[in-house]
Write a structure and sequence with these properties.
Helix content is about 35%, strand content about 25%. It has 13 helices and 23 strands. Helix 1 packs parallel to helix 2 and helix 4 packs across helix 7. The relative contact order is 0.09.
């Protein structure tokens, strides 16, 4: 399957300034290159004292740009050409001095003039000592840059080069990388969409210590959210219990139980274009969870269980009553251990879904916690499409392809 990464083939200008965190920019340049981006590095004079140009050149296989008046070709002025060709300009790390120059619109070096010459989006990742970051002048420059449309990757708290602890550490390269993806995805085919995705398993309390749970890892739901993000959607991710970290660049709402997840879904879908229920929601909860830890006994422990809220059933009822926007497309999942298609078709009909993703959890590589999945997509028209065993991110993109096709069918039918 062709790459859907918005970084693949993108022209990224990476400006590296004189922060001690400049060494992390080498890792960022490597990650950008591995994602398929064409990376042009601009190294300021101060940065070149901390990290050598050869480090970037060896990784990006591109010359490193340093001189203000160097020509890229006989008639190509460096800062103009770099600025015009860029799909995104990233400044990481950005010192307090650099923030001031960019906010004031100075053009006294190659990086500053490139930023002035470009119309590409600007991503800035500051890194500096805490007092410098919190100084009113620095905060004012950050406000100015935000107001002009720059995306600021907030610095993190932790151990600083001064030996102190505080806020000011450069964000991790993975966070900056995903921020760049979000910015580039503004031109994707889901740009303008608002989507809600649920992921992970719910945990229903028995007592303050024990829960009723399932084996869901959250990987499939996270892949669905990541794919939507990378295609330009504004994503709300409602998360139960998971074994992996959620993707960056999405709004995360924690919902550990079926009831809290139902509340979160109903609260967020009123303005949504699509709901994808990838979470493994418990079917039952304890009728009366114990207020204190239940002690082990010699006799059997009998628990009374009652049904949890039916999230998709509630959504279906609200759709039927006209309480939800007509544009809302609803996608469900059917994780089955037997009679896969029979159960999936029944759930599709009963829950009034537009699309259902059916997977046999007993099949090799397709169960809980795996990085792959083998599914069948069934939609409201009766169409069925079986996919081979694929990475979960590829399955997620196939899901969104199908959702877009359903939306296009609606548009043609009007």
């Amino acid at each position: 399957m062709a790459s859907r990464d918005p970084l693949d083939g993108a022209r990224v200008v990476l400006g590296v300034t004189g922060s001690i965190a400049a060494y992390k920019a080498v890792m960022l340049a490597s990650a950008l290159h591995q994602a398929g981006a064409i990376v042009e590095v601009i190294l300021t004079r101060e940065a070149a004292e901390l990290v050598r140009p050869l480090s970037f050149q060896a990784i990006t296989h591109r010359p490193v740009h340093q001189e203000m008046f160097s020509l890229l070709a006989e008639t190509e002025i460096g800062h103009v050409t770099l600025g015009h060709q860029a799909d995104v300009v990233v400044v990481a790390p950005a010192t307090a001095h650099t923030l001031a120059r960019l906010a004031l619109g100075l053009g006294d070096d190659l990086l500053a003039t490139t930023v002035l010459a470009t119309r590409a989006p600007l991503v800035i990742a500051p890194a500096m000592e805490t007092n410098m970051l919190l100084h009113p002048a620095t905060q004012g420059h950050l406000r100015t840059l935000r107001e002009r449309g720059a995306v600021i990757v907030e610095p993190e708290a932790g151990h600083l080069a001064s030996g102190a602890r505080g806020v000011g550490r450069l964000a991790e390269p993975a966070v900056i990388l995903d921020t760049v993806r979000v910015v580039l995805a503004r031109r994707g085919d889901l740009a303008g969409w608002r989507v809600v995705v649920t992921a992970g398993g719910t945990q229903e309390p028995i007592d303050p210590v024990r829960v009723l749970a399932n084996r869901s890892s959250g990987k499939m739901g996270f892949a669905v959210a990541q794919a939507a993000r990378d295609r330009g959607a504004q994503v709300t991710l409602i998360v139960g219990a998971t074994s992996v970290a959620p993707p960056h660049g999405v709004r995360v709402i924690e919902a550990p139980t079926a009831r809290t997840m139902c509340e979160a879904v109903l609260r967020t879908i009123a303005e949504a274009d699509a709901l994808v229920m990838a979470a493994a929601v418990a079917d039952y909860e304890a009728a009366a969870p114990a207020a204190q830890k239940i002690k082990k006994r010699e006799e059997r422990l009998v628990l009374e269980l009652v049904p949890t809220p039916d999230i998709l059933g509630t959504v279906a009822a609200q759709r039927a009553a006209g309480a939800l926007p007509e544009r809302l497309l609803v996608v469900g999942f059917a994780a089955e251990s037997a009679d896969l298609l029979t159960h999936a078709r029944e759930k599709l009909r009963r829950k009034r879904l537009d699309l259902i993703v059916a997977n046999d959890i007993m099949a090799a590589g397709s169960g809980f916690g795996t990085d792959t999945n083998q599914v069948v997509l069934l939609d409201r028209s009766g169409a069925e499409r079986a996919l081979p065993l694929l990475p979960k991110l590829d399955v997620a993109h196939a899901l969104w392809d199908h959702v877009l096709a359903l939306r296009q069918q609606e548009v043609r039918a009007r």
